[in-house]
Amino acid sequence: MSFLKEYDSEIFDLCELELERQTDHLEMIASENFTLPAVMEAMGSVFTNKYAEGYPAKRYYGGCEYADKVEQLAIDRACKLFSCKFANVQPHSGSQANGAVYAGLIKAGDKILGMDLSHGGHLTHGSKPSFSGKNYSPFYYGVELDGRINYQRVMDIAKIVQPKIIVCGASAYAREIDFKKFREIADEVGAILFADIAHIAGLVAAGEHPSPFPYADVVTTTTHKTLAGPRGGMIMTNDEDIAKKMNSAIFPALQGGPLVHVIAAKAVGFKYNLSPEWKDYAKQVKANAKILGEVLIKRGYDVVSGGTDNHLILVSFVGSDISGKEADAALGNAGITINKNTVPGETRSPFVTSGIRVGSPALTSRGMKEKEFKLIANKMADVLDDINNTKLQAEIKEELKILAQNFIIYNQSTY
Ligand SMILES: *Cc1c(COP(=O)(O)O)cnc(C)c1O
C-alpha cells in the first residue's frame, strides 16, 4: 500500500489500525470472514475504472472486451459451483440481489411470506423498515420455542396467506433448511420459492449443507460471508425466463454500472470455492461451530436448539439476568467480537435482546481448529459466568490476543 501511504496517510493509518484490530481480536460475528489477498488484489485492480453497463457481449459502452471475459468467468464459475444454469454476478450486495427478485417477479403490494427478523430472518425478507416490507405486503413465519422451523406450521400460514413469494433462508438459524419441504409448501399455494442462502452459501458450495437446487425457483447469496469472497451479491436460477427477469431487474431497473473490479474478485473467490481445500475449510467451519456449542452446553449455557448444523450458534439467556447487550459488551472487553441477537421466547427489546449469535467462519479462515475453539468457548463461559468482572475480561483479552497473533491473517506485504 505504498501509494496510499504517500498520498493519504490518514486513510492509510486507519487501514493499519483496522488490520491491527482484526489481528488482535477474535472475530466471531457469524456473517464475517477474511477473504484472500488475491481477492483483495482483484478488488483493487484497474477494472474499477471501467463502465460496463449491460451484460457480456451486450454492453452500452465500448472497451468491454476484458470486462466481458471477467464477468463471463465469474458467471461460469458460479454456475459450476452451485450446479445451476444461470447466474447474475452484478448485485452490489445481498440486499440488492433480494430487491431484484421482488422487483423482477412480483408487483408492489403483492404478498410475500418470509422468516420474521426477530426469529432469524433478514431485513429484506419483508421486515417493516426495509423496502421489502414497505413496497410489498409482508407476512411471517418463525421458529418454535425449540429454535427450529416447524414446516407444518409454515404450511398452515402459507395456506391462509396465499403469498406470491415464499422466502426461505436466514441470518440467524443454526439448523439445516429443508428446501424440499419449502418446495412442497410453495407448490401447495402456487407461490414462487425464493431461497436466500447468504449465510450458508459456503457450506452449500462444499456439499456441507443441502443445496436449494433443484427446489428453489430463484436463489440469492452474498459472496462475503461463508463464501469468503469480496463484499457483494449474486442471483442464481435454472429457469431461463426468471434469469431474463433478474438481469433486467438488476440492470437497468435497480443498478447502473456493475462493479467490474468486484466481479473480478468474485471470480477469484469462486476459484477458491471450487478448489479441494474449500471442502476441508467448510468441514472445519462446521466442526468448530459444533464444539463451540458443545462446550457452552457443558458449561451450563442454553444453546438454542441444542447445537448447530452449520457455522453458527445462538446462545439464549432467557430467564437469566444476563442480556444479549451485556454479554456482547463483556465479550467485547475480552477481545471476542460477536453480536447480540433475539432468541426464541424473547422478552427484551431488539436493542437489548436475550441472546448472542456466534460464528466460526472467520477464525476458521485464520486456521483455528477444534482445540482453539474449545479454549475460546471456555473463555467465553468464564466471562459470562462472572459478567461484571472487568479485571477478568482484561486478563482474558491479553491471553486471547496472544492466541490470535499466532494465527496470522495477512502479512504486511499482502494486504
Ligand atoms: C447478510 C444477508 C443479506 C444481505 O446482505 P448485504 O450484502 O449485507 O446486503 C441478505 N440475506 C441474508 C439472509 C443475509 O444474512
Q: What is the typical, i.e. mean, pLDDT? A: 96
The CATH topology assignment of the largest domain is Aspartate Aminotransferase, domain 2
Number of helices: 16
The rounded Rg comes to: 21 Å
Total separate domains: 2
- List the uncertain runs: none
Task: Tell me the structural class.
Answer: alpha/beta
Strand order of the largest sheet: 4-10-9-8-7-5-6
Give a short account of the largest sheet: 7 strands, mixed
Span of the ends, CA to CA:
8 Å
Secondary-structure arrangement, i.e. CATH architecture of the largest domain: 3-Layer(aba) Sandwich
Number of strands: 15
User: What fraction, in percent, of the residue positions are helical?
Assistant: 40-55%
| Shape type | globular
Q: What is the fourth-level CATH superfamily of the largest domain? A: Type I PLP-dependent aspartate aminotransferase-like (Major domain)
What hetero molecules are in the model?
pyridoxal-5'-phosphate
Percent of residues in β-strands: 5-15%
CATH level-1 class of the largest domain: Alpha Beta
